[in-house]
């Protein structure tokens, strides 16, 4: 029996399923990963040097401009076929949750609700000083002209500079998001890990945590990232092709 057949049987039998997604699923919608070389105005910059508190302190206008550019990318991108699968599976009556490392809103736009963002979201900024969330008008979030630097808006509470509400390098994950994710991962019957690199911890530990809790682990990736566990299945290929095929194999009418 192939891993695809075994994976479809696991989905059919499961009452609760968690999709754990990484940059690979959004890359198919045109959003570059941190391993991709940047293009255009940002080609000479290293994303890992921009996504830090130190970089923001040194040049907040540069980092805010980078944030606006990334947000513009996500608003222009569209959910792909892989993003649609969790909500379609939920329509079969199963409890389906999404835990993502991505900071875009493509899962929500594809119909998933209650998405847990381990690394924050580009949807709303927060204050660098007092950490309170902030709301901005669409005009304030538009990429302005051809320049790379844009002075960040100020917090209405403390007048601190606003920053993206995402987890930068060397920062801890949001406690509430991590706790919620752990509750989902340790109680699900199937974890579908999609497009994850297995590099950024502690999120990278989630597949092993699910296995240790007794779940069946289904990997969907362009390369073999399996851990050689008996309850682990490896489906190699693009998420936008493999996930719809898996759903069709498990539920032909879904």
User: Proportion of β residues?
Assistant: 15-25%
Q: Fraction of residues in helices? A: 25-40%
What is the oligomeric state here? single chain
Q: What is the H level of CATH, i.e. the homologous superfamily of the largest domain? A: TPP-binding domain
Total strand segments: 8
Compute the average pLDDT: 91
Distance, first to last CA = 23 Å
SS class: alpha/beta
> And the CATH topology of the largest domain?
Rossmann fold
Keywords: Cytoplasm, Metal-binding, NAD, Zinc
Binding site for NAD(+): 101-104, 195-197, 221-223, 239
Enzyme class: transferase
Cofactor: Zn(2+)
Explain what this protein looks like in three dimensions.
By secondary structure, this protein is α/β, with parallel strands linked by helices. The protein has two domains: 1-30 and 79-119 and 173-254, TPP-binding domain (Rossmann fold), CATH 3.40.50; 32-76 and 120-166, SIR2/SIRT2 'Small Domain', CATH 3.30.1600. The protein contains ten helices and eight strands. It has helices spanning 3-13, 23-27, 47-50, 53-58, 60-76, 81-90, 106-109, 175-187, 206-212, 239-250; strands at 16-21, 95-100, 116-117, 120-127, 162-166, 190-194, 216-221, 232-236. A six-stranded parallel sheet has the order 3-2-1-6-7-8, with helices on both faces. Helix 8 packs parallel to helix 9 (206-212). The longest helix has 17 residues, at 60-76. The chain is elongated. The two termini are 23 Å apart. The mean pLDDT is 91. Its cofactor is Zn(2+). Keywords: Cytoplasm, Metal-binding, NAD, Zinc. The active site is at residue 119. It is found in: Cytoplasm.
């Amino acid at each position: 029996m192939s891993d695809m057949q075994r994976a479809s049987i696991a989905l059919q039998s499961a009452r609760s399923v968690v999709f754990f997604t990484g940059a690979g699923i959004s890359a198919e919608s045109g959003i570059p990963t941190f391993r991709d070389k940047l293009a255009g105005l940002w080609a000479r910059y290293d994303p890992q040097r921009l996504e830090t508190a130190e970089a923001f302190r040194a040049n907040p206008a540069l980092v805010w401009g980078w944030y606006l550019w990334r947000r513009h990318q996500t608003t222009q991108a569209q959910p792909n076929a892989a993003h649609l699968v969790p909500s379609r599976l939920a329509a079969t009556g199963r409890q389906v949750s999404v835990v993502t490392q991505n900071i875009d809103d493509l899962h929500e736009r594809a119909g998933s609700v209650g998405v847990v963002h381990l690394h924050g979201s580009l949807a709303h900024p927060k204050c660098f000083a007092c950490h309170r969330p902030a709301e901005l008008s669409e005009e304030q979030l538009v990429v302005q002209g051809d320049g790379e630097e844009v002075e960040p808006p100020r917090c209405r509470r403390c007048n601190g500079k606003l920053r993206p509400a995402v987890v930068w390098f060397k920062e801890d994950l949001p406690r509430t998001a991590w706790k919620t994710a752990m509750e989902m991962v340790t109680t699900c019957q199937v974890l579908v890990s999609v497009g994850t690199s297995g590099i950024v911890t502690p999120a990278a530990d989630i597949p092993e945590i699910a296995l240790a809790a007794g779940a069946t682990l289904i990997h969907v990736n362009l390369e073999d990232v399996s851990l050689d566990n008996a309850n682990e299945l490896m489906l190699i290929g693009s998420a936008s092709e493999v996930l719809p095929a898996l759903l069709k194999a498990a539920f032909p009418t879904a």
